[in-house]
Amino acid sequence: MGKRFKVSWLCVLCVVLALVSVATIVTLWTIAFTVGKGGHVTAPWDRYRLPMVLIPEFYNITLWPRLMPYPNSSLYIFTGE
Do 63 and 80 contact (CB within 8 A), yes or no? Predict the structure, then answer.
């Protein structure tokens, strides 16, 4: 017959408590970074990462689409500067 492995209830309780703690920390961290000014929830891309003094007035973007798929995959790649 196979050997039995005995786990104490204290060990199981500690593991469950650790998992709940990590889940709570991750949830609070996520809420802290997604709540905007005034208490309303905003997505990360709705906020500027730069200070208000450094936000650009316009962007100058040039894209060159490649009309053939990339050789290693079936993706179409855009390059630019």
Answer: yes
How confident is the model at residue 45, as a pLDDT? 66
Show the tokens assigned to 25.
Answer: 């920390």
**Element of type H or E holding 18:** helix 9-34
Backbone angles phi, psi at 75, to 5 degrees: -85, 145
Q: Domain locations in the chain?
A: 9-80
Note the residue count of the chain: 81
Q: Is the pLDDT of residue 68 over 90?
A: no
Determine the Cα–Cα distance for residues 30 and 40; give it in Å rounded to an integer: 14
| Amino acid, res. 18 | A
Check: CB of residue 42 under 8 Å from CB of residue 31.
no
Gap between the Cα atoms of 63 and 81, Å rounded: 7
